[in-house]
Recover the amino acids of this structure.
């Protein structure tokens, strides 16, 4: 169990002192104080961590390419072109919460800041971690950026290009670089037609190699590029919000449709209802005559809620006993869980493996179904291990191979090599995926096997 707002526990100190100084015969005052303590505990938001759950959502593929060259420090867009771009991206992230967004920064070369993800906190963190002072290049290469994009996996994608355009002059080369991609292009051109000088860190203005002031302006080629790609050309509006709205309108005009993707999100069970209900019951028992009827009502309403809490509690206890290598205890605890769940199945299968009951482990692993490739890979790996421990090396080889077909796995590859030798040598040590505690995400486990 964890507390979301533990700082409220400081309130227990004065209430605790008050409790000690109350007279023993003042029962009503003591009950009132207990009610206050329960309300304080409610404010701390106690939670039980349940782990990762898989959810299918509709999401568009969006690639945001942000120009971070030196010219983006120009102030013709306030406060600077770069700061305005960051604020616009932040607004987009808040308004497109389900989209699968990739973030690339580029100068003369592109740099992946965040791979495609629906977790926009990660995208925002990557964006805020970027320090322009660490970027030494002053040029912009749209061609290299587009070649990088064309080398990616071909999917229907929205491309939001935020730049001043640099010194690009060859429209044909840019369109050629994008011709094999399936994108809808939206260009946000930052800057002004007349251009402006670029301030440096020491307060002076940037100069070229001939000691002439550098004047940066919007490259008119950007508008031609948008037209050539049947895209949308935008410039900075009065504020990032209005610019974000214009970008969203451009996205909505695209022929690209959202597709269903599987998203893993961390879930918790809220427990604040328990102290809150107890406080309410105590208050009503003191100040109403209908307390017995209220108790019956809350008991009836609380039956399924209590069962859910108990299942989560038992699962957490099972994880701890498993980590302590008390596998028989783990099996007994899991038997107390009444509601079937994938977490229970995975934990029980791993427990049977540790108890050398490999047939039962294989049966449970095989009964788990998920649309997640990573979860399937873990299941195949564990099934292969169980067959290997039974010396069914041909079956083990099949499942190790299936695991490797879903992605690189050093353990599976290592064990696959071992079983090739075990046809001659009868002994070897093989690993097993351990169930993960709800507060631990360091091992292959059942915590992310929900689908």
């Amino acid at each position: 169990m964890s507390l979301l707002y533990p700082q409220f526990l400081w309130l227990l100190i004065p209430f605790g002192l008050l409790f000690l100084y109350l007279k023993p015969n003042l029962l009503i005052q003591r009950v009132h104080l207990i009610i206050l303590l329960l309300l304080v505990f409610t404010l701390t938001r106690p939670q039980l961590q349940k782990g990762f759950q898989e959810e299918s959502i509709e999401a568009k593929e969006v690639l945001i390419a942000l120009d971070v060259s030196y010219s983006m420090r120009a102030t013709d867009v306030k406060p600077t072109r770069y700061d305005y771009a960051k604020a616009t991206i932040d607004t987009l992230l808040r308004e497109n919460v389900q989209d699968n967004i990739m973030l690339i920064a580029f100068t003369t070369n592109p740099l992946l800041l965040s791979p495609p993800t629906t977790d926009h906190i990660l995208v925002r963190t990557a964006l805020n971690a970027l320090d322009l002072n660490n970027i030494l290049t002053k040029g912009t290469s749209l061609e290299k950026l587009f070649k990088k994009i064309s080398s990616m996996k071909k999917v229907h994608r929205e491309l939001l290009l935020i730049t001043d355009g640099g010194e690009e002059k060859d429209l044909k080369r840019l369109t050629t670089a994008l011709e094999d991609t399936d994108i809808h292009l939206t260009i946000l051109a930052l800057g002004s037609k007349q251009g402006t000088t670029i301030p440096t860190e020491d307060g002076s203005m940037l100069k070229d190699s001939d000691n002439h002031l550098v004047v940066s302006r919007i490259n008119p080629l950007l508008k031609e590029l948008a037209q050539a790609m049947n895209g949308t050309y935008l410039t900075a509006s009065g504020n990032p919000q209005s610019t974000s709205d214009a970008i969203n309108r451009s996205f909505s005009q695209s022929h690209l449709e959202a597709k269903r993707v599987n998203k893993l999100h961390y879930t918790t069970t809220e427990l604040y209802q328990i102290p809150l209900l107890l406080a309410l019951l105590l208050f009503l028992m003191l100040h109403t005559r209908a307390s017995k009827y209220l108790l019956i009502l809350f008991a009836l309403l609380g039956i399924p809620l209590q069962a859910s809490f108990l299942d989560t509690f038992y699962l957490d206890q099972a994880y701890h006993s498993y980590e302590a290598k008390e596998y028989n205890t783990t099996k007994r605890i899991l038997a107390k869980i009444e509601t079937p769940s994938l977490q229970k199945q995975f934990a029980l299968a791993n427990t049977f493996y540790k108890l050398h009951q490999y047939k039962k482990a294989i049966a449970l692993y095989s009964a788990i179904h998920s649309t997640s490739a990573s979860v399937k890979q873990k299941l195949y790996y564990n099934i292969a291990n169980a067959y290997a421990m039974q010396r069914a090396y041909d079956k083990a080889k099949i499942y190790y191979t299936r695991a490797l077909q879903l992605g690189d796995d050093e353990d599976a590859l290592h064990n696959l090599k071992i079983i090739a030798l075990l046809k001659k040598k009868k002994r070897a040590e093989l690993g097993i995926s351990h169930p993960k505690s709800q507060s631990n995400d360091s091992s292959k486990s059942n915590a992310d096997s929900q689908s």
Observations:
- Confidence is low (pLDDT under 50) at residues 300-307, 432-451.
